[in-house]
Please model this.
Amino acid sequence: GAVVSQHPSWVICKSGTSVKIECRSLDFQATTMFWYRQFPKQSLMLMATSNEGSKATYEQGVEKDKFLINHASLTLSTLTVTSAHPEDSSFYICSARGGSGDSYEQYFGPGTRLTVT
Amino acid sequence: GQNIDQPTEMTATEGAIVQINCTYQTSGFNGLFWYQQHAGEAPTFLSYNVLDGLEEKGRFSSFLSRSKGYSYLLLKELQMKDSASYLCAGMDSNYQLIWGAGTKLIIKP
Model:
């Protein structure tokens, strides 16, 4: 089956620093990748959708200058949390979707737990 | 607006059957997904329905009624490892997933 990896799986950083999270589709080409954030005991919140080679589309209320998304290839997307603050501490999950066939299933990465101190 | 409703929490007994309901309102409709999410982990795919009816996959089955905007996930022969949150998500006309808040399923011995 389709496999999506994320790196790192967890990260602790100091307030004001930037953190980059990588999302890779290992055995398929992901034309579209999604970035989600999930706070404890809450549902997934879509942050942005990115298509390979084009700018990401951000959901309302998500600051594009703070959460930089780069989808440079069909197998890699990165999310950079710039000038992180404690309120950015959350579980960040990426998912990927291929562009062919009649399945629109999203394959999820294992998630990255970010703690900002 | 777009909305997905599902119960917040359900409790069931090991070995029993449980049905988790989901009602949806989306702008256009391209299918209904169910995902399982264990605490601290990412969601994993369970099922996808785009036509009316019941899809059976082992101990799990998923049902869809497009006219009623309704779906359910049926779990049979419950095991302790089935304790998790179950997320219902509808796909809109832009192929975006609209997520429910999830149903936390607690399995008791």
